Amino acid sequence: MASSSSSSSRLAFFAISVLLLSSLAMATDFVVGDDKGWTLDFDYTAWAQDKVFHVGDTLWFNYAKANHNVVKVNGTQFKDCSFTAENEVLSTGKDNITLKAEGRKWYICSRGNHCANHQMKLVITVEAAPPAPAPTSSASSLVASLSGALIVALAAILS
C-alpha cells in the first residue's frame, strides 16, 4: 500500500513539475538595453520597438546602483519625468520586474536629470500571454517518445 501511495505522489509531483516548467519556458527575460543596460543617452524607444512583451515576461534593469534607479510611473509622470512618494522605486542595480498585467508600462530613472535630459525612460505595451504553440510533427514524435518512456518508468515504479 505504501509503495502505491509513494508512486502516486511521484506521479503527481512529475505532472505538476511538467506544467510549471512548460509555463516558465514560455516566458521571456528581457535585459533592458541589452549589453548597455539601464544607462544615460540610450534610445530605449528604439530598443523596445521590435520586441513583443507578454504577461509573464521579465524585464531586467542592470545599472550602477550608485548612479541610477528604476521608478514605475504612469503615462503623465513618464511624459513629465516626474514621480511621487507613492511610486515604487527600485535601486539594487539588478532589478527585475515580472510583467503581470496587459497594457502600457512606464519606467524612468529619477536621479538628477537622467530622464529629462538623458533619455532614461522606457515605455512598453504588454500583451496577453501567448497561447501554447501547437505541436509540430517533430514535437509530436518527441511527446510520443516521452510518453512511452513515462509509461515504462511508471511501470517500473509501480512494480
TrEMBL record:
Keyword tags: Copper, Disulfide bond, Electron transport, Glycoprotein, Membrane, Metal-binding, Signal, Transmembrane, Transmembrane helix, Transport
Gene Ontology molecular functions: electron transfer activity; metal ion binding
Gene3D superfamilies (alphabetical): Cupredoxins - blue copper proteins
InterPro entries: Cupredoxin, Phytocyanin-like, Phytocyanin_dom
PROSITE patterns noted in UniProt: PHYTOCYANIN
Name of the protein in question: Phytocyanin domain-containing protein
Cellular component GO terms held in the UniProt record: plasma membrane
Position of the signal peptide: 1-27
SUPFAM superfamilies membership: Cupredoxins
Annotated Phytocyanin domain residues: 28-128
Mode of membrane association: Single-pass type I membrane protein
